[in-house]
Specification:
The protein has helices at about 5-20, 25-35, 55, 70-80, 115-130, 205-215; strands spanning about 40-45, 65, 85-90, 100-105, 130-140, 155-160, 165-175, 180-190, 190-200, 215-220, 235-245. With about 240 residues, the protein is α/β, with parallel strands linked by helices. The strands form two sheets. It has a seven-stranded mixed beta sheet, sandwiched between helices. Strands 6-7-8-9 form a four-stranded antiparallel beta sheet. A hairpin with a 4-residue loop joins strand 7 and strand 8. The chain is globular and about 55 Å long. It binds S-adenosylmethionine. S-adenosylmethionine (SAM) binds near residues 1 and 47. S-adenosylmethionine (SAM) binds next to helix 1 and strand 2.
Length: about 240
């Protein structure tokens, strides 16, 4: 595995579906991707527990996933439709699937799990190599918000306070390596659980340049999954690329 945080997801797997279950835009994500898929097969990089891939496959599309954390795959297998869903355990930056796809997608900040620029470019190259000539790559990631940490690059926030547990989130920002390291600390009467994570954030313009290095060109950019415009106020972007002519 490249410098990525897939190993951290083995720890998060036990709570991932609980934490992401309430995400309101999963149906819109599926609808957007189904609209871009054409009639060919679809590949998700960092498929996780199948939050998006399983409902997308339920629309009738052939969907395949690549995932680096085996415990996330175990969780996918327990979801409806997950027992037969095709998943390859491997690194999305270089795993080879011996076929091409009309749509490759990498959503929900998963691209940022690759912790240096070289691996992020390798991942885009890998995606491009698995696209059919008229295929589409869709990415979704947040716009970096450097105001979330203080002048020393730190933040300690209360995630949620519940009757029998409290979520604390400790964050450190490394502006030189463009990395955000977080530790979600869950304190309850049963003890303390730690859920570490790390991402390398990228600016939209950097993503476009990395895509260009990978032989891709931008087609569309939106501020979300319902096609809202991408503006200075957008907190994330859904970006669409195709192979450069
Ligand atoms: C933020 S989760 C997103 C999961 C899923 N795509 C979703 O939208 O719910 C990121 C996923 O990418 C996986 N991942 C991180 N780095 C990876 C890598 N280098 N290769 C394959 N999977 C990776 C993690 O294990 C995790 O399951």
């Amino acid at each position: 595995m490249t410098g990525s945080n897939a190993a951290a997801y083995n720890a998060v797997a036990e709570v991932y579906d609980e934490w992401t279950g309430p995400l309101p835009d999963t149906p819109a994500t599926v609808e957007f991707l189904a609209g871009r898929a054409g009639k060919g097969a679809v590949l998700e990089l960092g498929v996780g527990t199948g939050r998006v891939a399983l409902p997308l496959a339920a629309t009738g599309l052939e969907v395949i996933g690549i995932e680096g954390a085996d415990k996330m795959i175990d969780k996918l297998r327990q979801r409806p439709g997950g027992d037969t869903f095709p998943v390859i355990l491997g690194d999305m930056a270089d795993v080879a699937v011996d076929r091409t796809f009309s749509l490759v997608y990498i959503v929900f900040n998963t691209f940022l799990c690759l912790l240096d620029q070289r691996d992020q470019v390798r991942c885009l190259r890998n995606a491009a190599e698995h696209l059919e000539p008229d295929g589409t790559l869709v990415t979704e990631m947040h716009v970096p918000d450097l105001t979330r940490t203080d002048a020393d690059g730190q933040r300690l926030a209360t995630g949620s306070v519940e009757r029998d547990r409290v979520f604390l989130e400790a964050t450190m920002h490394d502006p030189v390596r463009q990395r955000i390291r977080t530790q979600v600390v869950v304190v309850s009467e049963r003890g303390i659980r730690l859920y570490p994570n790390q991402v390398r954030y990228v600016w939209p313009a950097e993503l476009d340049l990395m895509a260009q290095l990978a032989g891709l060109e931008p087609v569309d950019r939106y501020g979300g999954w319902t096609g809202e415009p991408f503006t200075a106020k957008s907190t994330r972007h859904v970006s669409v690329f195709r192979k450069a002519a």
